[in-house]
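Q: I have two molecules that I believe assemble together. Could you output structure tokens for the complex as a whole instead of separate predictions?
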Amino acid sequence: MEDNNKVTPKRGFPGQKTSVQAALRWRGREGGAMAFPEPKPRGPELPQKRLKTLDCGQRAVRAVRFNVDGNYCLTCGSDKTLKLWSPLRGTLLRTYSGHGYEKVNTVQFNEEATVILSGSIDSTIRCWDCRSRRPDPIQKLDEAKDGISSVKVSDHEVLAGSVDGRVRRYDLRMGHLFSDYVGSPITCTCFSRDGQCTLVSSLDSTLRLLDKDTGELLGEYTGHKNQEYKLDCCLSERDTHVVSCSEDGKVFFWDLVEGALALALPVGPGVVQSLAYHPTEPCLLTAVGGSIQCWREETYKAEDGTG
Amino acid sequence: MAALDGDSDEDLVSYGTGLELLEEGERPKKPIPLQDQTVRDEKGRYKRFHGAFSGGFSAGYFNTVGSKEGWTPSSFVSSRQNRADKSVFGPEDFMDEEDLSEFGIAPKAIVTTDDFASKTKDRIREKARQLAAATAPIPGATLLDDLITPAKLSVGFELLRKMGWKEGQGIGPRVKRRPRRQKPDPGVKIYGCALPPGGSEGSEEEDDDYLPENVTFAPKDVTPVDFTPKDNVHGLAYKGLDPHQALFGTSGEHVNLFSGGPEGTNNLLGDVGVNKGRKLGISGQAFGVGALEEEDDDIYATETLSKYDTILKDEEPGDGLYGWTAPRQYKNQKESEKELRYIGKILDGFSLASKPLSSKKIYPPPELPRDYRPVHYFRPVVAATSENSHLLQVLSESAGKPTHDPGTHSRHQLNASKRGELLGETPIQGAPTSVLEFLSEKDKERLKEMKQATDLKAAQLKARSLAQNASSSRPQPSSPDVGHCSWHMALSGGTAPVRASNFKPFAKEPEKQKRYEEFLVNVKRGQKDALECCLDPSMTEWERRRERDEFAQAALLYVSSHSTLSSRFTHAKMEDDSDQVEVPRDQENDVSDKQSAVKMKLFGKLTRDTFEWHPDKLLCKRFNVPDPYPSSTSVGLPRVKRDKYSVFNFLTVPETASSPATQASSENVPQHQGPDKSRKPSRWDTSKQEKKEDSISEFLSLARSKVGPPKQESSPLVNKEEEHTMESVSDKVNKGVDSQTEGEGSRPSMDLFKAIFASSSDEKSSSSEDEQGDSEDDQEGTREADVKGSQETDLVETSSVAQASEPAPQEPAPFFPIQKIQIDEREEFGPQLPPVFCANARQKLEAPLKEKHKKNKEKHKTKKEHRRKKEKKKKHRKHKHKGKQKNKKSEKSSSSESTDSSDSQSDEEGAADLSPQELLRRLKRLPLRRQ
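A: Yes, here they are, computed for all two components at once.
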């Protein structure tokens, strides 16, 4: 972990748009943890040793995020607060409370970890300042009509998916709010790595690739099952494939351009709740039930036992 | 150690007090805790600390602040928050209790003031004093008496004395027979003023039997009833210590349990202590025999039965219960009447009443009318709709409401000046007759405005019934007078120029607004054809009909929503945010059309809403992004202030039902065709004053969408029968607007239409339309005939209309694009336009649509190709992406459609951008679904 931190300044490199905020993601229900290491000159390693267990005291933890240098992490959960931790020391640094009476679904640092964005069931996104001790958020984005299920941040945009079936993109640079109606409750949104498209998964078992600028539909991906849970989706490391969890225990890969199902990877018996793709290599982490899995390409020769 | 450091000690400077050396085995002292530490002065006295801001250790005279003797320091209040709260001290604040007591400098007790004290001194005393002065051993020794001035007597005493009253007597007419057997008895207490030197008491005869005829007696003095509550635990009539007795005292008082008031009068059984003479000293039951008492025999047996009454008997007559026991008085009222002889001195100017005061006459309450109901009965409120107008009429008749007639105003509705006018009086000149005259010009102006507003309201109230009539008379539009029988109602004095005070439902079309105001004035005057005469004669029949409805509705709605409410509330004097709430200026539109778009996978403009959004400045800073709106102070979506309790904050107006037609209607006013339309402000970009109207007008459109029947009636008919007419209308509209029409007709694809029409059967945009549409199908035939007839009559009536309705379907194609343009920018109010798409027009529309579709497909293809290429050349992905994007953009720009690129969106809120959306709405509402 400490080694990871040394490398991390790279991520904050301004020109680099492919950085990944979701360095670590814990699902509250499984209690599993997923993490990406940074690529090393000496070859990849995967975190396998448990270093610390934080008792967050937040009941079900719904999201965990590292900040940009990995020194802090944020948790959010059912107790309507965000908590900022020093994960290696295991100390609680701050608590942000203000999300009314609703649970906080998701939390996200911005690229420089100067702002925390948290989306809650109370249908607001709140922007918390990390640089000051202000107890109240900088801004409250309360345009959504229903709970926020997913928040993603780019260098100047905030992408939020809401249960009211709309994907809202707040462009700070332009000062515009783009609201795309999808119809079905949004479970997950993410930017493509080139920053031109947004991938939207919704509860009608469909993933949609939308043009970020115009909102036009570029592709539609179906075949998986997503009608109940808030499942994750992402794009592969080079935007070639669209990857999504499914409720039937598989992970689905679609070709991004063709829209054809490329692979249905059986992961486990339960619902695949969450997944994350390696930022640069064909490596996938999945979470099913209480366990997580790491997947590599077939040609990959395992240096260490990855499952 | 000391020896060693002896000299070095000299060098050192000792500072502070050294710690005492501890004895062997002695424990180090515990330090005194902070709360026990005290501050003492040099003499060892404890110093009180008053607080750092209220005196420190010494405050007040010899540090008496806060103690019993000193003043209490006022608590410190920061003048920052409440600087106006300056307490002004009055003299009372510097007084203590003594000053406020009876003999202080500001007594609080109620005393007779000098005004009501008699100026003249007590004459009797005066005389006595003079006498004493004369007989005194030292003449002139009355100096001392002069110094001691007697208490001033009140006016009441003086009056009484003038009427012959003397101290010690009762007040009232003198009685003939001396009823009491009173002995001149020192034990008798004398109440009232000081002892009189011989009064009526002195003339008393001791002999009971001898009662001369001409001698009357003053009534007995009455002890005022003591109403002080018994608040001790002693027995009844217990007297612990009586200082009066101690000083002047008599003892052996008879304990009269039954008469609480006049004590000491009941000496029938003899008094023990009567003959004992005065006892001096403190006496009472609590004490034994005082040292000053002569006899001490009675210590142990003071209580004898003889002191108590043993029988209950009637009170002695004339016992001094006047005014206290009322029943007695009533019992022998006659006697009192007989006895009404006031023997005494009657003051000058007064005469004795010959009759007693007649008792108050009590009038019985008025009889209630036979049909009086003590509980108010509310008549059922029937909403004014077209169906139940008859019911309303019947109800209003049964309620006995007077028909509005200027002559039959009840007199209560007239004010004084009007009554005077009726009587032919000349108005009073000269001094201002009303408070209004004193008002300033500005206030007068305001009042005038308000009055006009209410006048307008009244006019609109009438217009409400008019609206009913208009709607009921719809099937026979050729004879408009039929429905306007009730337009007779007129207001008196309706000549005031009616200004639509602040409600301008058609503000965007001054022409129409003018007509509307004219209409209101006419209604107010009670003209029968208020609507007819104010309408534009150049309009077609259905336009006029529509406008008539519109006006009536507007008037009605304005009354119901605005005036009736505003008559109950006043405007805030100050700018008050509490009655207004900020709501986002832009709202995400209705989702129904978006849903259909999603179903068709027509993502893009149909599903996208773009709003101006202001990020917080700090947020921009944190994101390392320049503030897009450096001058704005707002955050988030732009907000506007609107009425807090407005329904519209919580309603989403079904725009699909109303807006397209209203927009179409607005286009029919030729004055507004022009290039300036494109930069027309959005309807929320209004100033603050207009916002209220906005809500109302929104309400208008909402309500109009509910009204349903008129538009439904017109649309199928027109659609089927009078397509040519419609076309002509559209042609008329199109005159002079052709310049705008280039390149617009290529937007929606054919799929769009198909999907809409296929799905519109299960998606009911407005249920009312459908319901009424069904019911109208059977009536259609007759109505068609009617409308035809009306059309014909119209043709005869106005030549211009006839011209317009001539079948002249030349190039209807450009009509559609204009429609689109205006739809995009604004939402208008007004009734719905019947669908303008006739068969041939639609086909002409479809051609460009197909083109567009093709283009779309092509675009997709090129995109896909790009992707494929991209796949093949994975190595140069980044560049490829860029290239792709560039290609995409170049595609967009090359194609005729003006896709809003993200950069240019703010600038060009282009006219054409949203048009497919609006198209969709329009199309969904077409009655084509029946086909």
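A: One point stands out. Chain B touches chain A through 54 residues (CB under 8 Å).
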